[in-house]
Design brief:
By secondary structure, this protein is mainly alpha-helical. The chain has helices at about 15-25, 35-40, 45-50, 55-65, 80-95, 115-134.
């Protein structure tokens, strides 16, 4: 009797995040559980804990993944145009991943991708202020 060898894609944090985001997009963040995510990936839920410590860390990483996709234009000479591009990009992504807007991140001590957005906006605003002084 011949045996079939089945090649399974290795489980990575990127793959876990990708599938978790897809599930949240499809069914909402409330429907996301470690058990359901494991089933969608074809693994036991316990396998996920090799890549994320808990559901809170998973959700934080999911939000960070969305925020990291915001367009952060540092090549735009006009500060107001740069902020507009960033805002439009954020708006479009948050419509696509609406669950990311509904999460309460208060009290979260972990760094978030949103800090990069705020730092860029501050730098753009400072650049605009310097240009206005000329």
């Amino acid at each position: 009797m011949a045996t079939r060898s089945r090649t399974r894609r290795p489980l990575t944090k990127e793959r876990v995040l990708e599938k978790a985001i897809a599930l949240a997009d499809k069914d909402g963040i409330e429907a996301l559980s470690m058990r359901r995510l494991g089933q969608a990936l074809g693994v036991e839920a316990m396998s996920l804990y090799n890549h994320v410590a808990n559901k809170r860390e998973l959700i934080t990483a999911m939000v960070d993944s969305v925020v990291e996709q915001f367009e952060l234009p540092d090549d735009e000479p006009r500060w107001d145009a740069a902020i507009r591009r960033c805002a439009i990009s954020a708006h479009d992504l948050l419509i696509e991943h609406e669950w990311a807007c509904t999460l309460d991140r208060a009290g979260n001590q972990e760094p978030i991708g949103g800090i990069a957005v705020l730092e860029l906006i501050q730098a753009i605003a400072s650049r605009g202020s310097a240009m206005a002084e000329r």
